[in-house]
Every structure is written in structure tokens, then in C-alpha cells.
Model the fold of this input.
Amino acid sequence: MANAVLARAEIMAHTCESLCELVRGLQEGAGAIMLAEEVLADPAAAALTEALGSQPPWSDLPVLVLARQGADSPVIVKAMDRLANVTVIERPMRVASLISTVRTALRARNRQYQLRGLLDGLRESDQRKTEFLATLAHELRNPLAPMSTALTLLMRKPYEAAEARRYYELMGRQIDHMVRLVNDLMEVSRITRGKIELRMEAVALDSVIEDAIELSRPLIEGARHALSTELCGGPLAVRGDGVRLTQVFSNLLNNAAKYTAPGGKLRIVLREEGGDAVVEVWDNGTGIAPDMLKSIFEMFVQVSGTSKAAQGGLGIGLTLVKSLVELHGGSVEAASAGLGQGAMFRVRLPLARVETGRPRSAVPAVRGWPASWPGTVLIVDDNRDAADALGDLLRSMGASTRVAYSGDAALRLVADGPLPGLAILDIGMPGMDGCELALRLRANPALAGLILVALTGWGQRGDKERIARAGFDHHLLKPLDLAALISILGSS
Done:
């Protein structure tokens, strides 16, 4: 009778002939259990209690007991003590009461299944982050090892300038590598939180691809890969940020080069297809397992069994690619015949009506301190090594510098004179931070022409807004890009 009532309410139910059958059925899954009070006196009820007691942490299966009318029976009292999630419904009952109680139990059970999915997702995400942090530690140690060795060699005995130069170049390459790692982390953080701004204009994809190839050439040539290009005859223009699109295709080329054994073959194709510009990057490298083709674009995911082939990266390049392509209204997909069979990444971008290339910006050459800036440079950073090294660098270029390691010390230097024409300030200093120091310097009428440059590791939108409100003229990220500093001085 209960089964028929529930069926009319479109609630699927299964009738068990015995408690043993019910316990076996629980192994296949259930939304709720409904029992008559009399069944609880069956000796097999102990098996039901054991089954309910062995539920996983997320599960709390609802048990509905149809009880006889009148005073509470010992069986009911005992059942409520042994079974956690029990609802007692007294007979005779209204049909509406039975249906509403069952529906409430099933809704609660459905929430438990949702919680299970959430916990599984969190567990998987936590595992990915753990693996990612291990990879990050490994990749940061890689450049630190040769830098440490080079410094030890330079300190053990004096070297002639020409002889020591290769050690300096080695350290420079490793520092550049670490900067790229940190920049990738910051980029993916900004993009995934929607904090990135694109400079949209009509750009020619053939020029973008040429720039991407130039960026990736050292990695490709270092692995002795053969790169072939198949670019369509006419120019294909899309509306986008040329710098970011160059980053997309450079990342794909870098990815292909890293996951391909030395002496491999890479190919990049550009064509028009159905109103879209299509760019494909092919390689004959380690390939991708079918079950990984979609998840490789997710944060913290790396292809199992191929991490050793991809030395020198964090495995977040494809996350950057997907996010940037989607910001341009496009899509990206991966294809592979399987592990060891190579891979292909296809990017689709909507074509623009105007076909024009993006302007190329020249990078200023770094030679010496601008002759138009004879004034003193004030450098403030609580990291003494960083402050002293920057002071030595600028002095080697002909600048007059004064170095302070705190905001208070900087104000004392200014009071003692000479007055600086340029101040390069760290932001995250204890006590008086860089923003407070900037406000104090701006309040000094004698420093009306002072140019303030923030040199900091903080580069989020909120940081930029706070730095601008403090009166800074420019905001540079650590480590210092000397060409950028010279450029902004030349334009000031």
C-alpha cells in the first residue's frame, strides 16, 4: 500500500521482503529507508544497525519508522537510540503527511550526495595543490643550485673580469628563469580572478606568431627541434591584445618544446576557417592520455608520467593559454592519439574586419644614466642587500645615490641634504611603509619636483590604486627592469 501511494506521488520505491534483503540493497545505494515498527523486533535488525553505523562521514541515511498509535514502545525507544537519523510517523497517517515526510527525507539525502561531491572535489583540489607546491619548490631550487655554486666559485678565488663573466651570465639566466616562474604565478592569479586588462586593437596574427617564435626560439633551438610554419597567404587580423596573444602562442610553443624529446619536430599552422582564425601547434612528443585531454587546462593539473620531460616549468602555462584565449572570445582544445603519439593544440579566434598589424614598441637600450638627471637618487628598502645592490648599480651608471633602510632613515637623509630628484621606494617595509613615506615626501614643499617610483613585489590592482593614491609617479615590479626605469625617466 505504501509503495502504491509513493508511486502516485512519483516517488520511486523498492519493497524488500526481509531485513536481510534491505541490508543487501543498501550496498547499491538508497535515498531513505521506511520500516514498520514490528520489523525492528526482528533479530536481523542488528545487521541494519551495523550497516548504518558503517556509513562514510558524509552519509546519514534517513530512517522512517511507521509506529503504532499510542504510548512509545520499547522497540521505538531502542531504535531511536541505535539509529541516528530516525523519524517516527504514527499510524494511522494521512497520505499527505507520509508523502511530505518522504520528500523531506529525500531532499536531505540529496544534499548529502551534493556534500559528497563537494568533499571529493576539495580532496582532489587539495591533492593537486600539494603536487603543485612540490613542483614549485623543485623548480625554484633548480635555478638556485647553479647560482649558489657560481657564487661559491667567485668567492673562493679572484677571477679576471673576462673569466668571471660566464658566472655572471649564468646567474643572470637563472634569475631571469625565476622571474618568469613568479610572473606566471602572478599572471594566472590575476586572470582567474578577472583582474587583467586587455588593450584591444586589430592585430595581424602572422606578426603575433613571428613574435611568439622569437620568444620561444632559445628553448626550441636548445633542444635541437625542427620548427616548420604554414601560414596562410593573406594576413588574418583579430581584435585582441597583441602582447597577450604572443604570450598564448609562445606558451604553446614552449609546451611543445618541453614535452618533445631533443631533435623533435614542431609545426605551427595558421589558416582561416568558417569566419575564424585557426592556429594549430603540433609536436611529436610525449602525447596526452585520452582522459587528460580536457583536464590539462585546469589549474594545478599535470599530465601523469610526463613531468620529467617538462623540466623548467610549473605546469600552469596551459591554464594561462585557456584563460587568455577565452578573454579574446576564442576557444582552445587539445588532441592526441595517446601517450608517445605527440599532441596538437588548436586555438580559434574570431576574425576582425580591419586587417592591420599591431605597432611594435622598441625596447630602450641601457647604456648609462640619463644626462638630463644629474640629481641625487634616494633608494629606500628594508632589504639591505637589495638597497645596496641597486645603489651600486646606479652608481656604476653615473648616478649619485643615497641609500636608506627604513622610512625614518630616509626622512633624515632628506633633511640632511642634498635633496633628491628621484626616489625609488620599496612598499612593504615595517614601521613606515613606502606609501606613508611617499605621502611624507609629497608634503615637503622643497621636494616639489621629486619623481617617486615604487619598486615592489606587490602588483595587484588594489596595490596599484593604493600606490597611485600615495603620490607615486611610476610603479615597477621587483626585480628591477632597468630598461623600464630608464624609459620612464626619459619620458618624465
Remarks:
- The chain has four domains: 2-118, 125-192, 201-350, 376-491.
- The first helix runs from residue 2 to 8.
- The radius of gyration is 33 Å.
- The CA atoms of residues 186 and 459 lie 8 Å apart.
